[in-house]
């Protein structure tokens, strides 16, 4: 059995049109000087003129860098679109009437035409863009998957350009002296031809990938249809006899080749299914198509004719084999070719839209050349657009606010969350409780209170020791003074220790006040320990109620109610996402809404243009309304389901119990913090007072030591004077006082 027939690498590219040199700078410059006296950036206009002229000069230069030629033609076409709106070309007096665009016919190189019509120039550039795209496709290496894809994309791009030429420019470029290559009929024929070659690339791909013969047949059938449509245009006026016979024969042979290829592939599929009669009929049809094509295309090019002959050999070989098998084994009646149903086709190739690459709305050429009337009209239009955007955006925002407020009133989705999670504790409250528990909880306050009391006792003991030092020193001073009488001239202790006594008294007063405060704190702690016990609950969720279904509604299906609510909320969220998308689309539409070029191509008034352009916002306005209407209906459905849900689960009672627990925990935390704050304040106080009393005690100790030294020296001096005893005697006596 023969392998699937692969397409031969025989395709054609469209030749480009040639032109003559043309000076655009001088006539455009004169027009600017006459009609745009006040300009924002004359230097930029000079640069723009040079840029346009350079592009025009390079258009007719032949180069093998097809991508560069393609990009150049696209840039120049966009520039022409800008020029078209700002510079009128015609034979009228106030127009640019000294510029003639001259181009040769691509298929009849000796024929040329000249027009004072910028659409003629645009048509020629569009034609050449399609031709270059076809040359890109032909230059791709289709022996690889990547090359087939590149060729296919280029041919589809070429088809898109020729379709654009046919639909948007050809009629405008007809004029009084056009070339036939840019006519509507020619552009349509070329689009079909490029689609045929793009579809042929798809056929090569499915054959190389060894896809089923049934699919290969459908793809081949569409290749033949495209070629047949192109051939049909070539043999009818006005194109008949216009293109060279080899071109026409090529298209004719291609159509026959792929109609036969479709039959051949279909026969392969029928052979696998053992439908021998249908197989023989399809092979007979293929053989007939190829035989007739060879007879009518004797002048066909060698490589293509070789491909046709090769296909014919495979067809006839399979046909002979099938007939022998049928005569020997099957003995099936073979249907006539005319009785066969048409083979199905699969369209895989489409014209690639070129509006984006040829769109001149973002071009900055001659941007400073804007008539004052257009500026004013544009400002008016933009205000109208802003009004539309604000109105629709306001509706969307209002819908968002309405959703939030109604869901909040219905406690959604919190009530549904409560079912799946049991007891609910707000995150902020849980954090507060965990902070209390990590610090030891209410029981830790009792320990801190004990520590506070021990610090108070320690401070009292320290102060008592300090006061005892002063009292003992004062007592000793009084005894010595009584012994020596007037001879004891040292100042009395009371005159020296007044400040120390005052400070000690002050600390004693503070300690007394602190003790009273401690008693109050201890009483508060004792009285509120039961209130704060809730904070020892771990986890704190155990202190809160759980949502439970009421036994009064046992007949209702929980899954229907809860599941229905969740589904409706999901639908509501999707509507919200749609609104966000609508807002983004409104912003994007406004950002891209630039009708300046259209204003410049329209002679006022602009009311009709404004209404037409504002009409592009009608669709999204309808979508906004539909979204809001759908939301209203959905919210009503949610309310109905939620009412049943609240009754089924006793939601209001649950909320009351939840609120009560929340307040209890908040009150416990508040009281805990209050008591903890007071204890911490007390600890801080006792720590600072302890340091102060320690310092006072040290001062008192130093004072007592100094007084003892003074006392010893004075006693020795007085005894020596009164008795004449040795000094060591008095030293010994002084020692008595030191002890």
Describe this structure in words.
Helix content is about 75%, strand content about 0%. It is mostly helical and about 750 residues long. It has helices at about 25-35, 40-60, 65-85, 120-140, 145-175, 185-210, 215-235, 245-270, 275-295, 300-330, 355-360, 370-410, 415-420, 425-440, 440-485, 495, 500-530, 560-590, 595-600, 605-615, 620-650, 650-725, 725-739, and strands at about 100-105, 110-115. It is built from 23 helices and 2 strands. The radius of gyration is 52 Å and the shape is elongated. Pfam families: ALIX_LYPXL_bnd (PF13949), BRO1 (PF03097). This is BRO1 domain-containing protein. Its main location: cytoplasm.
Concise summary:
With 739 residues, the chain is an all-alpha fold.
Strand content: under 5%
Q: Tell me the radius of gyration.
A: 52 Å
Mean pLDDT across residues: 87
Q: How would you sum up the major sheet? A: 2 strands, antiparallel
List keywords for this structure.
single chain; mainly alpha; disordered N terminus; 739 residues; BRO1_dom
How is the secondary structure organized here?
Blueprint: H1 25-35, H2 42-59, H3 66-86, E1 101-104, E2 112-115, H4 118-139, H5 145-173, H6 184-208, H7 213-234, H8 245-272, H9 276-296, H10 302-330, H11 355-358, H12 372-409, H13 414-421, H14 427-438, H15 441-484, H16 493-496, H17 498-532, H18 558-592, H19 596-600, H20 607-614, H21 618-649, H22 651-723, H23 727-738
Antiparallel strand pairs: 1-2
